[in-house]
From TrEMBL:
Segments of this protein annotated with the region Disordered: 1-23
Species: Pseudohalioglobus lutimaris
UniProt keyword Zinc-finger, yes or no: no
A Pfam family matched in the record: Mannitol_dh
Name listed for the protein in its UniProt record: Mannitol dehydrogenase
Domain of life of the native organism: Bacteria
Keywords tagged on the record: NAD, Oxidoreductase
One BP annotation, GO: mannitol metabolic process
Domain Mannitol dehydrogenase C-terminal residue range list: 306-464
């Protein structure tokens, strides 16, 4: 099999692949026309009924939870249709509605290539356009599972990570008129309140975002929000709604135009909802469910009593090094994670960071080998088939650093490679003119422009990632090391 060349503008082809743009579009009617060898749903789509509502219908959900559900139905039966809700634009609706919810997933590395069409996404809605429909579905007893991928900032968490950020304009606005709420928290609260009023059928709410104790945090902020907006339903949510935490893992870069063209060539049909990912896939779910769920275990998901060690390993090893790679790459002008890993010096630093700092700070659950996991990660990061842009991972860094680095950073003393990563973040936001895509961008850009003394700017930037002298400040020696790293970057002429 030829390796893809992603820099082409026309689709890369290999023998048997289609080319050209006169191709039909993927849909129920055209499903039979997919290229031979592309797997199609192993069940009758017509028998599916809506059972899962997903909030945040991005590429990650399509390449992860939907794939597990699709496999579960094919292997164990069940009629679990997914209704996908995009929280902001209706771009995804435009991509998927004309395709009857069908889309293809390409999973690929140097040795493997698998293509399949996923069939369990039944319907797609855009929350801003169809608020009543979303509320109605959340209240519908047939919906027994709500999953969420709304990114870290979607949880509207305050500085302590467990309290509703009431000062956020979006939260203020939602609380002022909960019937018009648009945040994931507000939309979920409104739907659950209606469910309570319609008889309170049991339901599971499962966060699939990269946050430690993700669904427990969600439960905490949701209850605080509901105490202000729908107080009558608080007891019911507290006692009857299940919030199993979950650890999700699969690298799913944002789809590019070139990726879409290439995937169309591979499946023989245009597919505006196509996603490309890696073969690796993992889902660990806390075993505390309120209802039946798809047989995700048959698709490889694991149910455990204590999920915290798994979350911690994933966040503090995979995601922590991912953020370090992204920031180093961003400053070095590398486009993707694989580009960073192809640079021996940079890959060496990442390997050392993982081996000497991140890994020793973790406790593995029984039977889990951290060294094997590290080696797998190094291989996954080096996958040249994934166009995972450093800039994509660097997005929302102020939210990510809290989850990924702080635990390890605060357990360290003296100068470390993780401190050097932190210096790269500080340097990027304060000293360069590279764009910042972050919920705290306004504060950071103001700091960047401010002619205030360096130590004050640095302290204010550190506060944005949750490092404050009062809570968990760096001691004077470490601050000095941080400043020296930043000065080193300045001398090296990154800007
Ligand atoms: C990445 C994650 O974008 C990011 O911040 O670190 O999306 C990462 O690819 C996934 O968590 C892998 O499971």
């Amino acid at each position: 099999m030829r390796l893809p060349n992603w820099r082409r503008t026309s689709p890369a082809t290999s023998p048997g692949e289609h080319t050209g743009f006169d191709m039909k579009r993927l849909s129920n009617g055209n499903l039979a026309a997919v290229t031979a060898g592309v797997a199609t749903p192993g069940y009758d789509r017509n028998t599916l009924k809506p059972g899962i509502l997903h909030l945040g219908l991005g590429a990650f959900h399509r390449a992860h939870q939907a794939v597990y559900t699709d496999t579960a139905i094919a292997r164990s039966g069940g009629d679990w249709g997914i209704i996908g809700v995009s929280m902001r634009s209706d771009r995804v609706t435009q991509q998927l509605a004309p395709q009857d919810g069908l889309y293809s997933v390409l999973s690929e590395n140097q040795n493997l290539r698998e293509l399949r069409v996923i069939g369990c996404l039944q319907r797609v809605l855009a929350a801003p356009r169809s608020p009543a429909a979303v509320t109605g579905l959340l209240a519908d007893p047939a919906i027994r599972v709500v999953t969420l991928t709304v990114t870290e900032k979607g949880y509207c968490l305050g500085e302590d990570g467990w309290t509703l950020a009431r000062a956020l304009p979006s939260v203020k606005q939602d609380l002022a008129d909960p019937q018009l709420a648009t945040t994931a928290i507000g939309v979920l609260a409104r739907g659950l309140a209606q469910r309570y009023h319609s008889g309170g059928a049991p339901i599971n709410v499962i966060s699939c975002d990269n946050l430690g104790e993700n669904s427990a945090r969600l439960r905490a902020v949701l209850l605080q929000y509901m105490a202000s907006a729908f107080a009558e339903a608080v007891d019911w949510v507290e006692n009857e709604v299940a919030f199993p935490c979950s650890m999700v893992d699969r690298i799913v870069p944002a789809t590019t135009e070139a990726g879409l063209q290439r995937q169309a060539a591979l499946i023989g049909l245009q597919d505006a909802g196509a996603v490309a990912t890696e073969p690796f896939c993992q889902w660990i779910i806390e075993d505390k469910l309120a209802t039946d769920v798809p047989d995700w275990a048959a698709a490889g998901a694991q149910f455990v009593n204590d999920i915290r060690p798994y979350e911690e390993i994933k966040l503090r090893l995979l995601n922590a090094s991912h953020s370090s790679i992204a920031l180093a790459g961003l400053l070095a002008g590398k486009e993707t994670v694989a580009d960073v890993m192809a640079d021996p010096t940079m890959a060496g630093e990442i390997t050392e960071l993982m081996s000497r700092e991140l890994l020793p700070a973790l406790t593995a659950p029984e039977g889990f080998d951290l060294f094997t996991y590290r080696d797998q990660l190094l291989e996954r990061f080096s996958n040249p088939c994934l166009q995972h842009r450093c800039a994509q991972i660097a997005t929302d860094s102020t939210e990510k650093i809290r989850q990924r680095w702080l635990g390890t950073l605060m357990a360290q003393a003296g100068d470390t490679l993780l401190l050097r990563s932190l210096a790269r973040w500080c340097f990027w936001v304060l000293e360069t003119d590279l764009p910042i895509d972050d919920p705290r961008a306004e504060t950071l850009l103001a700091l960047r422009a401010k002619p205030s003394p360096d130590s004050e700017r640095l302290a204010a930037a550190l506060a944005c990632v949750g490092i404050t002298p009062r809570q968990n400040g760096l001691d004077e020696h470490r601050l000095q090391c941080l400043r020296e790293h930043i000065a080193g970057l300045q001398r090296a002429g990154h800007s």
